[in-house]
Design a protein that fits this description.
Elements: E1 6-11, E2 14-19, H1 30-45, E3 51-55, E4 60-62, H2 67-70, H3 75-80, H4 85-92, E5 98-102, E6 105-107, H5 109-116, E7 119-123, E8 127-129, H6 143-151, H7 153-162, E9 165-167, H8 168-174, E10 179-181, H9 186-198, H10 202-214, H11 220-234, H12 238-248
Parallel strand pairs: 2-3, 3-5, 4-6, 5-7, 6-8, 7-10
Antiparallel strand pairs: 1-2, 8-9
Helix pairs in contact: 1-4, 6-7, 10-11
Bound molecules: acetoacetyl-coenzyme A.
Length: about 260
């Protein structure tokens, strides 16, 4: 499918999905969200893809939901269409690992989109924020929930109530991002991380993602039981035999996703 708001490139088993609305700092309109959910699902189903990198431009990952598009909408419009609901859920169902490579602004829906990914690598010029309160709304794509889980109540409340931005250093300190890199190296570092993931068993990577995500949905006891059962289940795979044999034989494993 040809996209108008995205550029998708697949190389070395990595799908790079680039948000591409430079005229609006990659503001997220309904078309972009629908195209993104489609591109993510396509990458998830594509055997040539083992990891996905979601990125924007040097200036903006995404400056939030498209305010021009939303400004005149009514409750009936947005509730009736469940604005952002279905597409965000579709992205959260992708089973392959997704890295967000964030430079510049990741605000409102942009910050929420980054948090929908499995981890965030950001450039040293990144700025995160949930400034929806300035527009008379609350976050609508997971910000009050995911930011709180990522950085804790104190910072999440501060960000959502004051609308202030968090710079890259604070984002790393708070646990919102996994690494900060110089802006000029952002894609190189994100792709290096992605390629590392492509070298693992895709089956095991999927299980890792499923198990970490389960920790947000359940009690500790149930989460630990889920993890242990998954760990036990991995012993039914050829990749477990190969991974452990390769360690003992002091060679690189050749995973076959079985
Ligand atoms: N929606 C629509 N257009 C946007 C936009 C947005 N979220 N953010 C930026 N743009 C547009 C601007 O209107 C401008 O377009 P024009 O040239 O046609 O006027 C263009 O992008 C460049 O933006 P600025 O001139 O404002 O650039 P700047 O460098 O001076 O400021 C900024 C950058 C601080 C990011 C500023 O653009 C800004 O504050 N943007 C809005 C951020 C925001 O409030 N995001 C939350 C949206 S609500 C939301 O996301 C709800 C949700 O949870 C789902």
């Amino acid at each position: 499918m040809a996209y108008e708001t995205l550029i998708v490139e697949i190389e070395d088993y990595v799908a790079v999905i680039r948000l591409n609305r430079p005229e609006a700092l990659n503001a997220i309109n309904a078309q972009l969200m629908t195209e993104l959910a489609h591109a993510m699902a396509a990458a998830d189903a594509d055997e040539q893809v083992r990891c996905i990198v979601l990125t924007g431009s040097d200036k903006a990952f995404a400056a939030g939901a498209d305010i021009k598009e939303m400004a005149t909408k009514s409750f009936v419009d947005v509730y009736g269409a469940d604005l952002f609901g279905l597409d965000a859920e579709a992205i959260s169902r992708v089973r392959k690992p997704i890295i967000a490579a964030v430079a510049g602004y990741a605000l409102g829906g942009g910050c929420e989109l980054a948090m929908l990914c499995d981890f965030i690598i950001c450039a040293d010029n990144a700025k995160f924020g949930q400034p929806e309160i300035n527009l008379g709304v609350v976050a609508g794509m997971g910000g009050t929930q995911r930011l709180t889980r990522a950085v804790g109540k104190a910072k999440a409340m501060d960000m959502h109530l004051t609308g202030r931005f968090m710079d890259a250093a604070e984002a790393e300190r708070s646990g919102l991002v996994s690494r900060v890199v110089p802006a000029k190296n952002l894609m190189e570092e994100a792709l290096k991380a992605a390629v590392k993931i492509t070298e693992k068993s895709a089956l095991t990577a999927m299980a890792v993602k499923e198990s970490v995500n389960r920790s947000f949905e359940t009690t500790l006891t149930e989460g630990l039981r889920f993890e242990r059962r998954l760990f036990h289940a991995m012993f039914a795979t050829e990749d477990q035999k190969e991974g452990m044999a390769a360690f003992l034989e002091k060679r690189q494993p050749q995973f076959r996703d079985r």
